[in-house]
Batch of 3 targets.
Target 1
Amino acid sequence: MVADKSGEARQQQEEIRRQKERWEQETVAGSLRRSPERQEAFATPSGIPVARLYTPADVEVDYLRDLGFPGEYPFTRGVQPTMYRGRLWTMRQYAGYGTAEESNRRYRFLLESGTTGLSVAFDLPTQIGYDSDHPMAEGEVGKVGVAIDTLEDMETLFEGIPLDRVTTSMTINATAPILLAMYVAVAEKQGVPPEKLGGTIQNDILKEYAARGTYIYPPRPSMRLITDIFAWCAKHMPNWNTISISGYHIREAGATAVQEVAFTLANGIAYVQAALEAGLEVDTFAPRLSFFFAAHNDFFEEIAKFRAARRLWARIMRERFGARNPRSWMLRFHTQTAGSTLTAQQPENNIVRVTIQALAAVLGGTQSLHTNAYDEALALPTERSARIALRTQQILAHESGVTETVDPLAGSYYVEYLTSEIERRALAYIEKIDAMGGAVAAIEQGYIQREIQEAAYRYQQEVESGQRVVVGVNRYQVEEEPPTDLLQVDPAVAERQKERIARVKARRDGTLVAERLDALRRAARGNENLMPYILEAVKAYATLGEIADALRDVFGEYRPAEIF
Amino acid sequence: MEERIRILVAKPGLDGHDRGAKVIARAFRDAGFEVIYTGIRQTPAQIAEAALQEDVDVVALSSLSGAHNTLFPRVVAELRARGLEDVLVIGGGIIPAADIPRLQAAGVAAIFTPGTPTSEAIAFVRNWFAARRAPAGA
């Protein structure tokens, strides 16, 4: 790896190359005759060829240009100058189910167990803008997260949790403005002003169309809601991450590591462009953009992925968008270990998978981390399995020693080769998406969905043919009894939520609610920022469904064309 | 040549995780079945209506959100209400073993949980129809 192509360095490279050829002929060839390699050729799951051996001659990296120093452009080595020597990553366990009371209890349990940030899972009706008493919510209330219908539920959810002392991440997209408004209103009741609040809303609608499915409105008005949040938070919530541009779900839907980087950053570019078109100046909102990636099993490819994503985003923000604030160049990200790699068979093995994945995230320089519980291919985690997941992070943080120096794998010939390859291949995808008219157009044309599905199907075929080994699934199987200690969500949740809505509706000022919903509709027809109107509606105890419906009246609903 | 089996792959409820549904849809298609995929967010009535309109032999349901105990039996009921007595209903997703007997009692013939090869689901459907068509003497 040479910075300058000075004569001496070039000579050394040449010499290494020559010696490597000699080694192949003299040493390797004989060994191969005696015992051939396990496969004809090796490749990462993204299809990047993996050579037998990497040497300095295989890596084209200019240290100062491509790696640099942590906390400085292009941030390949990390966004903080001291990384985990200063502060460990935030251990942020995604949780929530049933009613606000039950989830509040789980959050307090996690905080007492040493988790350092909250991460709220909402149920699907909350995510898609239906109240718990809506016919579409049937069977789904409180299942994959907590059910929130009105501000009252949100007050219960955070009861006894001082919002100026924790940061909260909310996995919420189409209804993000409503839940953000509720959070602001709860904080206000606790006496905490919005500028003191720290946390993240996912607010990334593009990946919902491409992979996750909780969209409500068509892309254009959805992008407006997002840029309204950027603008409102720039004024009122300087410490809030206004979006978490998410590769996680794209990856979970089947994408490769390269596609995860490419499609996520392509979506990021679309958000930046939308905000610029809405008249915002890049350095006012770009420092609050954050990212969310998955950590899968292919250890070195994952580490390289995080490093490549950081470098590529820094270059895009500085060179393409002309951002001048270094914070605008930084790709800060949350990581979750990959749910799709968990097996229902021999579930304890998942603890090992999660450990490998979490270690990759830490070596890749993540800012926060969720480790999955071993029983999540079967059900929501129990307290016991959730604790083991958190303990896995604590062992990495306090016992493994990987935190003691910054970016310890830099300079590994293999990791640097992979980092450059992932960046190059992701950039090629981004250029293709640019040529299609950007991420919104590529999603509308079904291009990104098709690419993801192709990769998902290929993976499944590899598993079924045995070419890809999944321990306990297609090799090393055992006869086993189905586990019995699984978490069950109380089926009475839906009934309890329906009663609560009725109670709130009976108590609130109905005329005020109607006025504020009308005002929201009027504003939605114009160009004003919608956040103040949503906040007013929330404070009058309008339900989430009523607010989402007011916007449905104006924006309509998105209907996808199905392809498989 | 045997008549092609028509299968409707459907996502009841609000769950958007359709990686599995799409993979299974494609696997059935590649295995020679005629496949229709409803897309996400379908009500039980919409699924039954699609099954009727498309004249399918099989309805394959997928849910990863935990709503299966409510939604799968309701799909069966909606199918039967439309006179689709013979339509084979199967399901898949994150479904705890303890729930399976209840779903089978409600008329879901088989549940395929994570890690099941697509070939197993395909074989199940083939055998089901082979068994039913054979006594007719073909």
Note: The mean pLDDT of chain A is 95.
Target 2
Amino acid sequence: MYFSPEENSKVSAAERVINGAAVTLRGIGKAFGDRQVLHGIDLDIRPGEFVAIVGRSGCGKSTLLRLLAGLDQASEGELSIDGSADDVRIMFQEARLLPWKRVLDNVSLGLTPAFRRRAREVLARVGLADRERDWPSQLSGGQRQRIALSRALVHSPRLLLLDEPLGALDALTRIEMQQLIESLWLEQGFTAILVTHDVQEAVALADRVLLIEDGAIALDLDVRLARPRERASNGFSAYEARILSRVLSAPPIESSAASTDAWTPGIAHISFAI
Amino acid sequence: MSIRKNTSLPHLWQKLLPWSLPLALVVLWQIAAQTGWLSSRVLPAPLDVLKAFWTLAVSGELWRHVLVSAQRALSGFAIGGGLGLLLGLATGSWKRVETLLDTTVQMIRNIPPLALIPLVILWFGIDETAKLFLVSLGVFFPVYINTFHGIRSVDAGLIEMGRSYGLRGWALYRDIILPGALPSILVGVRFSLGFMWVILIVAETISAQEGIGYMTMNAREFLMTDVVLVGILLYALLGKLADLLARSLERVWLSWHPNYQTR
């Protein structure tokens, strides 16, 4: 079973109900020992906004997401999210499913049995209702990420953090997942922050693209394209080219980043080293 | 798992094949004993061993000894294994407990439990407590080390995920840490079940009035080699039984693991 793109346009951007959380960062900095990873980050994210954070390997974009998720504490500055810790859910690069729990039990992790119905509904929404009795080891990479996505969504988060969740998927599955994430974001009205190394993915999904360079925000660009976005359109390509040229204009932060490059530029999309 | 090239071999025959060599050996052994090549003082004929087994079983003497031995083994396993599990969980979960205890445990671990026999006899005399102590001590370390290692090797990413999904304290332990450590813990259990019989055999041959070890030592006094062999075979059977038990535990508790899923 695969997610069908027709379901994509259930809710259009105009009639969307917004219940996302606002995020405010003031002078946020993070250092690991002597190494300053982030400094002087000021950021206001509106409720329901979809923000993509791009940047070269080691620029600090994942660190920023971990601060937002509460997995790490900022060394300086103020971070506020208008909601409790339960309103924030994160999706990791690896699915991080519990191999000893069946799919449905993974989705309803940390919830009372009363929520199992809701868990089933969300599973059906990502197109995996028939796999609820399977072990995670029996699923493909894309299916695992869909399970991880439904595990996050069962909690009805007001802020969903996505840490390169599609980085390890093949190109086709990745586009399917992007469409799924977009339609769920439109439906449920949460705020989404996506860290990615894929500029095309950022332009396809985000209202706003942030580029982080040397631990600071180097570019903050609103993407004014109607949804669903047509990847082949001129407007799309223009945004993609503009962000890419800005990324490539700066010298690499780490010379070693290039040597560990696992992502070669393809025809359909261009990626950075992770 | 194995690559089968010859699929024309009937299923039953394939199952019997591993047993053909032991069977041939037993037949050869019977012939050797019957023709007098092999003195019954060295090895009694297989049929005589069977006869001895039958006589002991009918008189009920055999079951009394087996029951006593099994009781000793299992209570020793429960005490030693239980303590090993608890201590392993504690040292694995809390750095401070590890700093406090682990060095000591690692030192004691390198003493073979059987080397303590003279001391154990001095402490507990030659009654049940001494045997229980030896078995518990032998079983303790495999369970302890594998539990400790299991807890330590739980994927940190899963623990982080659990925390970020609101799991705290016991819930985190129950849903992530314990199941993650379980494969390693079961390796310890299986290892210690084997070790349990080794220790018990020695403990029972030192001094006992009941049990399989006593039965064989007693038979040796009277040169009843057939009964000695019955005792040895019993240990083999019970060891195999314990291993089967551990395997079925693995199959039930690790059914999620790709290695244990039915192919």
Note: The first helix of chain A runs from residue 61 to 69.
Target 3
Amino acid sequence: MLKVLILGATSPIARGLAMRFATDGARLYLAARDPHEARRIADDLEVRAGAPALAGAFDAEDFSSHEEFLRNAVGELGGLDGVIVCFGAHAEEERAQVEPHAALSEIAQNFTGAVSLITLVARHMEAQDTGFIIVIGSVAGERGRARNYVYGSSKGALHLFAQGLRGRLWKTAVHVMTVKLGTVDTRMTWGREGVLLSISPERAADLIYRAYRRKSEVVYVPGRWRFIMGGVRLIPERQFKRLSL
Amino acid sequence: MSAVATNQVSRIPSSNRPSAEPKARRDVLAGWGRYPFAECDLYRPEKLAELQAVVARNSRSLIPRGAGRAYGDAALNDQNRVVNLERLNRMLAFDAETGVLRAEAGVTIAEIIDVFMPRGFFPPVTPGTRFVTLGGSLAADVHGKNHHRASSLAAHVTSLDLMLASGEIRRCSREENADLFRATVGGMGLTGVILELELKLKPIPSAWIEGELIRTANLDQAFDAFERADEKYDYSVAWIDCAGGRGTLGRCAINAGNFAAREALWSRAAQEPYRIAPRFPLAVPFELPAIALNSFTVNGFNTFYYAFSRPSAHRFFDWRWFFYPLDSIRNWNRIHGRRGFVQYQCVWPLAESRAGLSETLEAISRSRRGSPLTVLKKFGAQDGMLSFPMPGYTLAIDFPVTDGLFEFLDEIDQMVLKRGGRVYLAKDARMRPEVFRAMYPNLPRWQSIKAKADPENRFSSSLSRRLRIDPE
């Protein structure tokens, strides 16, 4: 039985992924900042998919707690075959752009917290020479834009980190997949202006799960963002900075 | 958790936690009838804590909204706040012995069928569409084709958790906070936000309905047929011609049946009794011009429908076709044109039903406003404060919004009222407050409970202001 840890399990995309893994018979540990909420999602999986799921708390920003958290989670799961890194924050970009504390907190949640956890996970998986790590990034990490560069830079850094890790682990049987999400209809985009081409979280989860099954390395969700971002990257900086993207 | 980590990496103070009130989206909303529209600040929390912040951190008027399938203005709050609960749709516990499901308010009837029909369970009560949420259904205390046997949805709900304006959560049942329970079921979301509820599902032997199709030429025959059908069957409903003239007005096609026993099915169906392959869904791609449904097309449709409803003393119905004929046509609410439509549903007490129905049908026929989608059904016993059903016959008709429609419906209101009947709030968009007051005699008692639960009247809607439901 596949044993999968989902970090940031209360997001709708994580919930959709959990449902797909549970339906395929995986044993899940759902970790989130709000364990009460993670428990409700675990209960939902149990009722819908008949698969008992574990739930617990973790705090991405509390780096020192990560080692113990992971040890406990692996112990409760009885092993670890896969980790999905779904947590992240995109709260108030306006504030993060003028308040260092807000910016650093966002980066801690999106990048450094993820680095801390992924490093521990990679150590574990390298030792057992098998497993997978799915890292949920964002197309916002493809190019710095005035509108969301704090968020974007944290996601861009995460992409590079995952890319490097993939390079290190390719000789082992550990599969590292980077997901570059386009806009998804969740809390993160709710009420935000200029949100285009949005897809539902269920559809996003579906596409991510399919990419995982065919062992993709880098996947844009949905695929059209590969071309959109390809175009966006080509615009010369002198012009790009003037665009209100 | 410690402020400074042992490995020298200091913990960054968290500053962008979702402690503040979540973001709203300015949206123009309507009910299923696409009349009226209202500009609202719409929230869609994904976690309980977010919902709590929406409810308790802002004192502006708020109304919960489910799938938006109420026809009129029940889930609208013009220039105020609306909270959509569709993302709070977790199923929390299920006991296969008792059939009791505990689920959040955003779970839909369609999800319940998807998950539980293969295990041999069906919602105990379902309205004519499965794309409704549990919370919305309970707030409107919906009924189904089995009302004569099973009463309304509330009869199958054993407990509910309600979030009050303070953000406090209260468990309500017939034993605990019984007043609040009774005021909340059928309370149109005005006592607080229904968070989760416990619902007893119905065990079923298969996904097929075994029953009959009875055709009657006039109302007297239809009433007789209903009496007989309701003795034999859990489910019964009639399509009725409300547009024809003398001779065709009031003719009915009654579908009635029970869930079929496995032994009654043919061998292939009996092997997989809960599986019926879905059919290709149809859709109405755009708003039809208002002229599309006129008295000629309506009469034509009715004649065809009646002719093609071949009477049959024994037949099987696909559950989708039997319970949800319109769910197979996406956006069917566009057929009535740009101005939208009003569904008028009323009920008469049993003794007045025959007379009430025929005078109303005649008035509708004379007005030439009737539409083809008209339903007749007999109700049984009913409990509740603002719940709509009462023992008697109920009629539901769609009317496209046209000039003079509301004056006409005011006249129908008076005809229904003088016979002791009432109009369904979940479908209403235009009733007058004094008429509502006269139709719902339990209102003062409901208001006293509401005043205690929500003393600042934070929960209100376009409907509650229009009908002056809120306590003064």
Note: Chain B has three domains: 25-84, 91-204, 208-433.
